[in-house]
Write a structure and sequence with these properties.
seven-stranded antiparallel sheet; nicotinate phosphoribosyltransferase; homodimer; 16 helices; TIM Barrel; six-stranded parallel sheet; 21 strands
C-alpha cells in the first residue's frame, strides 16, 4: 500500500543496489531541514505517526510489481529483484523527535537505519508527510501567537493542496495550537475538535435572512453561531439579537473586521449579550491577526483557512533525507555530500537540548554532564516493530504548548530576529568525524 | 468513503435542511475562481475525474454516522436524518469544463445540480481536488512556456503538501505540459510517463564516484543519466565521458547552472557526445528557467520540484462554490451574495467561447449565432451516473496544448499584462436576472 508513492529513482537505485549485491548493506539516513523558511525562527515537528503508519504498511502488490517490470528502466534487472520487492517489508530501526518539538536547521528529526533498499525507497513519502505536517504546525504556532488571548480554528480544507492535504493540515494545525478544525474527518480519525455552523448558502437557501437564523437557532440551540454578513452585517447582528437566547456567537466574513467587530460588540453589549462571542473569518493570516490583536478588536475566535492550510507566505519547508552511514560486512563508512552549496555532515547523530541551546553530537556520544540536557531523538521502531504507541494529537499539542512556552521571546516574533537567539552547536567528535570524512573523500576523488 | 472529508458546517447545514423539510429542494451550485492569482493570466482546468470519482463513491459508513450522532452539534437532530445520511448517494447532475481548458475568473468550471443536502455536502472536497489540480496545471503551463524548446519533468512529490498532493500534482503538471514525473504512483495509476535515474545517495553508497557510475551504466544502459555534481561537476562529467557509451545524459543539481551547463556541454562535445543531453535540477522555477532559456543555456530537460508541486509563488487559487438556484415544489429561486467585497451572480450559467473572448450567459440561452462559439460546460453526470468516460490525462494534456497554442501571446507572459487581452462579458439576460435578484433581496431584507 502506497509503496509506489515514491520517486522513480528510488526504485531504479533499489534495482541497482540489488544487482551490485549491496542490498545486504545497512544504511542510516537522516531527515532534516537545511534552512529556516522565510520569516520562520523555528519549526515545530509533526507527522511522525503518519510516517510510521506508512512504514508499517509498506508492501508492493503483485500488479504494481508487474507494472514496474514492464518499464524500460527495469529491462536489464534480474527477476530475483522483483521477488525481493514482493517480499519487502520495512525491517529497520527508526528514531524520531516527538511531535510538537521546536527544532532548528540541520537537526535530524527522523533517523532511519535499515537495509539500504528499504531505507532508500521510503525517502519520498517520509519527506512529504513529515515535511508537510511540520510546515503547517509551524505556521499554526505563528497564527496562534499572533491571536494572543483569542482562539484560532483551522478552516482551510477547501483550499488545501488536495483533500488529504486538508486532513493532514487540520491535524498539524491542532498540534500547532489551534483549538480545532472544520475538517470532520480529522475529528473522526484523529480526535481533533470540530467547529462550524453555517455558510452563506444556508442564509440564501431561505426566503429571508431572519428565517434562516430562526432555523439555525432551532437546530443548534446554545451552540448557535450566526453568519451575519450575507447582506448587511449590522442588520444581520440586529436580527440575531432579535431572536434572543440561546445564542453562542456571530461570525463576520467580510468587510473591515476591526470596525465591524466593534460595532457588532456594541450592539451585543447593549442587548445584554456580553457572553456572546464574535468570530472572524475572511482571508486571515498571522499578519492581519496581529494587527487586530494590537488594536484590541473584540474578536474571540479567528477562523483561518487558505493561508494556514497552505502556509501561504512560505509554502514549503525544504526538508531533505541524507545518507550518513553505510555498513557492510561489519565495515562502516560515514558519508556526506560536499558539493558547492549543499553540505551535509556524516554519521548518525543525536540532538541534546539544554535550556537555551542545542548540541548536535554523534549518536554514540553520552548525554553531556556539563549541564542538564535532554536527548531529543527517541527510539520509535526497532526491526520494523513499533516500540510503543506514539502520543496522539492531543498529547502532541500539549507537548507543543509546553515547549513553545519555554522558547525565548525573540523566536516567537513573526519576523526573523537580527541575531538568532538559539545556538546550535556541533560536538567536537562530530566535527572531527566531518573533517576526517571530507579528507578521505578528497583522496578518493582526485 | 471520504464522506467525512468535508467541513462540519456542511453537515450541520444538512441536518438543518432536513429538519426544515428542505431536503427535497434541488440546488444548483457553481464552482469558480473569483480573481486570477498573483502573476497568472489564465488558469488551466484539471481535476475533474477525481471530483467525479468522489461523487460516485460518496457514502457514509455506519461507524461514521455513529460518531456524528454523538457530537453535541447533532444532539437536537431527529434520528431520521441519520437514516437519510446512511442511504445518501450522489444522485445529481454535473456539468464541467473539460480538463486542459484555459479559463478566467467568474466562469463556472463545474456546476452541480442535486438535492440540496447532496449538493451542499460535496463543496469542500470538490474545491480541494479541482482547485489544487487546476492550480498546479496552471503553474506547469508557465514553467513549460518558460523552458521554450527544452522539456520539463515534475519532481516535486517530496515537497508537496503530503503524499496524495504529490500524486495529484504529478497528474496536473502533466496536463499542464510537463513530459512526465518522478512519481511512480502517477505512472501506475494515471499513465503519466515516469522519469529519474539516481540520487547523491547512490553515488555516496559506492566507494568512489566512478564506481557508482559504472554500476549505473550496467543497470540502465542507453537510458543512463549520471548525476555529476556530488563532488566536483566537471570532474564528474569527465568520469561519465571516460565510461563511453551507452549514455543518455548527465544531470546538474547545484552551482551556477548556466556556466556549468556550458562547460559540461563543451566537454561532451569534445568527446563526440553531441547527442548526450544535460538535465538541470536544483530549486528551479519559471523565473530562473526563462533566464537560462534567454541565455541559451544548453539544457535539454529541466526537473522542477518544490516550486511546481506547491505553486510556490502563488500557492492557492481561491476557488469558491456558490448557490445560484434553488427549486422547491416547482418554484425556482435565483440566489446570489451581495456582501461588500464578495459579489456573485445568480442562476445556472454557460460559458460560450469565441476565438478571443468569452460570453457568460444563463444556462438556458441558446448558442449565439453572431459568430462561431463553443459551449465550454459539458454534461458529465446525469442523476448520479457518469454519462461517458472522461478523457484521461494524455487526452487532457493534448487538449491543453491545443488550447494554449491558441491563446494570445500576452496571456503567456510570466507577468500580468497592462491590459488583459481576453474579454469576459455577461449576456444581457444574465445581467437582467442579476439586477432583478438584487432588487428582490433588497426588498426582503430591509
Amino acid at each position: 500500500m502506497n509503496a509506489l508513492l515514491t520517486d522513480l529513482y528510488q526504485l531504479t537505485m533499489a534495482a541497482g543496489y540489488f544487482e551490485a549485491g549491496k542490498h545486504h548493506e545497512v544504511a542510516t539516513f537522516e531527515l532534516f531541514v537545511r534552512r529556516l523558511p522565510y520569516n520562520r525562527n523555528y519549526y515545530l515537528t509533526a507527522g511522525l505517526p503518519q510516517a510510521i503508519e506508512y512504514l508499517r504498511n509498506l508492501r508492493f502488490e503483485p500488479e504494481e510489481i508487474a507494472w514496474l517490470r514492464a518499464l524500460p528502466q527495469f529491462s536489464r534487472v534480474s527477476p530475483e529483484f522483483f521477488t525481493y520487492l514482493a517480499d519487502l517489508r520495512f525491517s529497520g530501526d527508526v528514531f524520531g523527535i516527538p511531535e510538537g518539538t521546536p527544532v532548528f536547521p540541520n537537526e535530524p528529526i527522523l533517523t532511519v537505519r535499515a537495509p539500504l533498499i528499504e531505507a532508500q525507497l521510503v525517502e519520498t513519502y517520509l519527506l512529504a508527510t513529515i515535511g508537510f505536517q511540520t510546515l503547517i504546525a509551524s505556521k499554526a504556532a505563528r497564527i496562534v501567537e499572533a491571536a494572543g488571548a483569542a482562539s484560532v480554528v483551522e478552516f482551510g480544507t477547501r483550499r488545501a493542496h488536495g483533500p488529504e492535504s486538508g486532513l493532514l493540515a487540520a491535524r498539524a494545525a491542532y498540534i500547532g495550537g489551534c483549538i480545532g478544525t472544520s475538517n470532520v474527518e480529522a475529528g473522526f480519525r484523529f480526535g481533533v475538535p470540530v467547529y462550524g455552523t453555517s455558510a452563506h448558502s444556508w442564509v440564501m437557501s431561505f426566503s429571508s435572512e431572519l428565517d434562516s437564523f430562526r432555523h439555525l437557532q432551532q437546530l443548534l440551540g446554545e451552540g448557535t453561531t450566526y453568519l451575519i454578513d450575507s447582506y448587511d452585517t449590522l442588520e444581520g447582528a440586529r436580527k440575531a439579537i432579535s431572536l434572543g437566547r440561546p445564542i453562542a456567537g456571530v461570525r463576520l466574513d467580510s468587510g473591515n473586521l476591526f470596525e465591524l467587530s466593534r460595532a457588532v460588540r456594541a450592539l451585543l453589549d447593549a442587548a445584554g449579550f456580553h457572553d456572546v462571542t464574535i468570530m472572524a473569518t475572511s482571508d486571515l493570516n498571522e499578519y492581519r491577526i496581529v494587527e487586530l490583536t494590537a488594536a484590541a478588536a473584540p474578536i474571540a475566535i479567528y477562523g483561518v483557512g487558505t493561508d494556514l492550510a497552505t502556509s501561504a507566505d512560505s509554502p514549503s519547508l525544504g526538508a531533505v533525507y541524507k545518507l550518513v552511514e553505510l555498513e557492510s560486512n561489519s565495515a562502516k563508512r560515514y558519508t556526506a555530500k560536499y558539493s558547492e552549496e549543499k553540505h551535509t555532515r556524516p554519521g548518525a547523530k543525536q540532538v541534546f537540548r539544554y535550556g537555551n541551546r542545542d548540541l548536535v553530537s554523534c549518536a554514540w556520544e553520552a548525554l553531556p554532564t556539563d549541564a542538564p540536557a535532554e536527548a531529543l531523538l527517541r527510539p520509535v521502531m526497532s526491526q520494523g516493530q513499533l516500540l510503543e504507541p506514539l502520543p496522539d494529537a492531543h498529547q502532541a499539542r500539549a507537548t507543543a504548548r509546553e515547549n513553545i512556552k519555554k522558547l525565548p521571546h525573540a523566536l516567537k516574533s513573526l519576523y526573523a530576529p537580527e541575531e538568532h537567539p538559539w545556538r546550535v552547536e556541533y560536538s567536537k567528535e562530530l566535527l572531527a568525524l566531518d573533517a576526517r570524512v571530507r579528507q578521505n573523500l578528497r583522496g578518493d576523488n582526485q
